[in-house]
Amino acid sequence: MLLIYCPYCEEERSELEFRHGGDAHIARPTNIADITDEEFQDYFFLRDNPKGLIFERWRHIHGCGRFFNAARDTVSDKFVMSYKAGEPKPNLSGEPTATEKTVETYEATEGTAK
Amino acid sequence: MSGANRIAGQGRLTPARTARFTFDGKTFDALEGDTVASALLANGVHLVGRSFKYHRPRGILSAGPEEPNALIDVSRDAARRQPNVRAPVQEVFDGMKVSSQNRWPSLAFDVGGVNNLLSPFFAAGFYYKTFMWPKAAWEKVYEPFIRRAAGLGVAPTEEDPDHYANRYAHCDVLIAGAGVAGLSAALAAAEAGARVILCDEQPEVGGALHFDTSVKIDGQNGYDWAQATAARLEAMENVTILTRTTAFGYYNHNFVGLVERVTDHLARPDKTLPRERLWQVRAKRVILATGSIERHMVFANNDRPGIMLASAARTYLNHFGVAVGRKVGVYTANDSAYEAAFDLKRAGVTIAAIVDNREKPGEAVLAEARKLGIEVLTGHSVVDTKGKLRVSSMSVVRNGGGSARAIPVDALLMSAGWTPSVHLFSQSRGKVAYDAASGRFLPGTYAQDCLSVGSCNGTDGLQATIEESLAAGELMARATGNEGGGKVELRGENAFEWTGGMAGTGEGAGIDTTVKAFVDFQNDVCAKDIRLAVREGMHSIEHIKRFTTNGMATDQGKLSNIHGLAIASEVLNREIPKIGLTTFRAPYTPVTFGALISHSRGELFDPARKTPMHAWEEAHGAVFEDVGNWKRAWYYPRSGETMHDAVNRECRTVRNVAGLFDASTLGKIEVVGPDAAEFLNLMYTNAWDTLKPGRCRYGIMLREDGFVYDDGVVGRLAEDRFHVTTTTGGAPRVMHHMEDYLQTEFPHLKVWLTSTTEQWAVIAVQGPKAREILEPLVEGIDISNEAFPHMSVREGKICGVPTRLFRMSFTGEAGYEVNVPADYGEAVWQAIWARAEPLGACAYGTETMHVLRAEKGYIIVGQDTDGTVTPHDASLSWAVSKKKADFVGIRGLKRPDLVKEGRKQLVGLLTKDPKVVLEEGAQIVADPNEPKPMKMLGHVTSSYWSENCGRSIAMALVAGGQARMGQTLYVPMPDRTIAVEVSDMVFIDKEGGRLNG
Lengths: 114, 997
Prior knowledge:
The complex is a heterodimer of chains A (114) and B (997).
Chain A lengths: L2 E4 L4 E4 L4 E5 L13 H9 L7 E7 L7 E7 L5 E6 L21 H7 L2
Antiparallel strand pairs in A: 1-2, 3-4, 4-5, 5-6
Chain B lengths: L17 E6 L2 E6 L4 H7 L6 E2 L6 E2 L12 E5 L5 E6 L9 E4 L14 H4 L8 H5 L6 H13 L15 E12 L3 H12 L4 E4 L16 E2 L2 E2 H13 L4 E4 L2 E7 L3 E7 L14 E13 L3 E3 L12 E3 H9 L8 E6 L3 H11 L3 E7 L6 H9 L4 E3 L1 E7 L6 E6 L6 E4 L2 E5 L2 E3 L2 H5 L3 E5 L4 E6 L4 E3 L9 H18 L12 E2 L24 E3 L4 E2 H9 L5 H8 L12 H12 L3 H4 L13 H5 L16 H6 L3 E5 L2 E6 L7 H14 L2 E4 L4 E6 L3 H8 L12 E7 L5 E11 L2 E6 L4 H15 L6 E4 L4 E7 L3 H5 L3 E2 L12 E7 L2 E7 L7 E7 L3 H12 L5 E2 L2 H10 L48 E8 L11 E2 L13 E9 L4 E9 L8 E5 L4 E7 L14
Parallel strand pairs in B: 1-7, 8-9, 8-15, 9-12, 15-28, 17-24, 18-19, 18-24, 19-20, 34-45
Antiparallel strand pairs in B: 1-2, 3-4, 5-6, 5-7, 10-11, 10-29, 13-14, 14-15, 16-25, 21-22, 22-23, 26-27, 30-31, 32-33, 34-40, 35-38, 35-39, 36-37, 37-38, 40-44, 41-42, 42-43, 43-44, 46-49, 46-51, 47-48, 48-49, 50-51
């Protein structure tokens, strides 16, 4: 169970108190009625699903109720940071961790195979 | 003495404190502190169970949680019975009943043992190959047969009468394992001031010090030092020591699950105590001091009762005072087994021989063996054993050939070396690395804030373990901000440093043999099965594991994984690290469901939500249905009425007189603020700025993709205040959806949202006499048709309490929905009922509500829509504003697929035979004679018998439905095909005049 820092409550709380809200920093177009099918597809349907760093939304639904953003490593599930909604996407340079080349479990090895 | 094999002066149990238990009906004496295994061995019982597949006689292999063989059924009384308990882990209590498993008619004579003779037919993959054809036989013959034959224990049938507890805990440092390493780490961390939780699965701390009596720490006997250290730690405020507590799961962000066995060892447990307690620990840092597990040797017939791990024999002798035999053989590839022989020899047991498959054992142990006069056969191997229900001899050969020498023994100890317990480390998603020099998998790359210390980290040597653990304890304490205390120093001495170890098969069980050399005892996997799996094409360890079931038993391969890997590696001619290790999963050892669910059972499993009128409904005979967590009155049968009768009566009564309906479960959201209308304009397809205060409107909410998400009536109470209703099931997600947009997309809007679902009780009064019923009860509101027309809302009083009174209808009749504060709900309901009943009105439930709304073609979101339906598909185009520049879903609605011809549209269906009621979910086709697969046009979404129409009615999603009005379509059912005619969805009062009645 994840331990998540709520930037509004300024506390680490258990995942039980939160709800995941999908990718962060995807702004709803202000002219949404007029955008093309391709633009709508990019805005609504397509997501990156990265291996590594992801910026995502969380809501402290059983706490303060606020939505906020967090940067998490999808491999280790470690949170790099969380920050208030509306704050700019932080510039976290580089990949979080290089892929380990030591002996791996079979599953891990298979997981890296494309 | 409790048992002939108890040796006076040996062990740590108190001879005066005894307990009695039965094993397969026979009574045995034990000492307090015995495990079932030690007590049986004390009484000379080695035969304890039968193996899973071949039903071979099996004994006690180990003295710990890795035990694969000695699985027993333990009961306190009829309801308190647990199968598959590991005999070396279960402590004896006075009066316990123990039974063996997987045998019939008796343990000594088991009919299933015929499987052993038939074993050539039960090779690895037998089930996969044999139970393939005919396909139909799988469900009726094969699966029931396999299920009956498989499984060792029998699950209890009675409800578990015990209770279980659950506890959350936080600490700076959690230490798993309280052997030398764990205790040292705990001392250092605690002295530095850290909040420490130290847990160990055994009843007392000490770990390997239970058996290793040659260890001294600070001049003190190791086991005594451990107990003294535990006492010292216990006395510290910042330390919690949990014994009989297994750290079974290591999850994300240092969240570790522990299970504490509170009463399973007590003869007469206090009824207020939980049987087990689940600890959910969030630790800032974790230290893994989980030790290592000795491996068995893999050779022919290595599974007979009396053959066991050397360290286990040492535990039984040094801790429990039990000699596992009188004439004991040793077969080893590792020095540690020698010490078992030394201890037994000094206790007066004959050591037949130490057979060491190495040419050069450790010099120190070899010298000591010679000194004690023990015959050591280096470069020799045990290639077979004899003995039906207990080992009687071992067959020894010189490595590389020569004739076999049979040596009589009544117990055979073995050791192939020690496997570090990296289970928790691996569960933490750390990656293990293979250390070729020692042939072990060790913690490699850490994924979480933890450290491994001692033998689970591959650290050999007592002093090295102590120093590593002290350093780790202090480091972790400092890392969590603790600055107290001085340095802890400890000095350890032991008699011998152990060398050696092997993995895989030895002499006589090699690659060219087909002997039964067991790798996984519990699942009866032999070395030859693993080789067969490889020959049949399983080249990854994951496939080999599943094909042979190696490591898939309840012990999860604690003994077998490394051997299995080594054997596969040999056949594949690939190095062990290239084959990899299967991933360890939680739990480390089996955890009861009781501990995991704790109090969440029975009524507390999923708490019911009840409306304020629930008690009245119950008293008036309502049958309830579950809607989400809500208990809703479904129908109110009178004496002798079936559900069908009751619903028909309720439907007639509402249309002819009136009915009362509890609508309290409807979701309610108060939307307040200067921008409330603008916000609702964005959230719903309708226009809200044109709605006048005091009026209501039916609104549709879409998702951004254009599909219907929710619906409900919204009343405007003031310029800046709306009373929004949602579907019963949709309330939380609609609130979440609104908050999401308000906080993140439209934060400039000044709006405040409050969920008021549980604050308002809602009483729907529907039917021609609704006004007559309510009029005298209402104060301050003119409810005449002219002053209070359909789709209006007013605030005032009813029965002297505040109300928000809605004029609205979900039945097609003139109707009201009386909202009162929840606490007044029942009283107001009773007051209304007191007026309604004498006028001939009824209370009606959700089933009648469904029929009445269907008669009018009112949809239910989630029943008539399924997340792929647009408002246009549902004939609700009128509710979609064409003037608004934006609302959620405005762009989605224009997607090419959503404006395409031929979409499924909601229509009415009338069966040609009015008596036939369609089944909801039934498929619809145009041509019933079309060959299969037929083209499905859609499906029935709602279908009822309508008493008011005198016929069946239905709603359906049908491709191009609007263009098919009057067409005949067909609903094929297993036994017949039903002809239907497509119609509009309003089956009664098409002009809607009754609404204004």
